[in-house]
Specification:
Length: about 400
Amino acid sequence: MARKQADPAAVEADFYRVKDLLRAEERQILDRVREFLVEKVEPVAGELWLRAEPPLRFIPDIRELGITGTHADDPAVFPRRYLLNGLIGMEMARVDPSFATFFGVHNGLGMGSIRVCGSEEQRKRWLPQMVRWEKIGAFGLTEPLVGSATSGGLTTTARREGSTWVLNGEKKWIGNATFADLVVIWARDVADDHVKGFVVEQGTDGFAARKLEGKIALRSVHNAHIVLDGVRVPEENRLQHANSFRDTARVLKVTRGGVAWSSTGCALGAYEAARRYATERIQFGRPIASFQLVQDLLAKMLANITACQSLAVRMAQLQEEDRLDDAQAAMAKMFCTTRMRETVAWAREVFGGNGILLEHDVARFFCDAEALYSYEGTRDMNALIVGRAATGHSAFV
């Protein structure tokens, strides 16, 4: 009897039907985003990655989709639940993690800092322009010698002189900063030793952003090394509700949740590339998708993705209820990026030697995963946040 051949498209990668939790109008928005990504971003994602070109060409399309910012930022924005926002981020990374990061730096870190830590006047001044992408945002926290220790070890300083603040120091790995109009810089106030936030406008004297070269991950994202040499920022550009690192952490709590969704999308994109390849690659007269070892890899990948989606959905529900805490966000980031890293490695394995060629999308997902695994707090640092919540004891140095 001939062995029955399954339709490779029959099993939806959304194995537990997470998208069924969306309302009809939300599904329409997600479908529009997916259509844009598949028709416009996907065909050029590898080319942009190879050339290290940021996806600025898509700004008019993003603006047209109306998925930037919140209804509070601009009444013209359709109100969106956290679940829809998360699934939009997942879909972006499913096609191109670089695109998802480019969007997330502006929409999450840049706008989020102003939304969470800015005054009402500051939110009205900047956020509507950022919703329309008339101003692009960036977020400057990490430094050349300070990564995980940013909560207490920032070397960039802020000194007040009358109605002006003077910033000195360096930042590194700052996405979008080479072309951003507004860069949120976190610096240590020399007067009280607390971390404060400042919006530095592009072109300010003493501010220089140099693109980091030689990256092997998220190449379409322009990460910059920033030098702040006597940069003068008016008091009106100091984020009025950013007075300690606890306020910075309020921004990171939200964006770590976004990384959980993006890493799930990256894993999903790698899985789909591997499944597609497995159905087309013929060895020993049969598609390799019919081999037990390949099916085992695909099943493990799908299980990882489904577990990450399930965790992220519950996280979105807690956000909707305003009950998500730092440790829960840290767990989501820690777990989903770890499972992503495992999944993209299995996906690359399905391809054999072909898996290191850029013409096969899995190579791009495999490389990009390393950046998602590291930014917004390493796995280890997020694990310690969870461990502190679990035990009541801090293991931070």
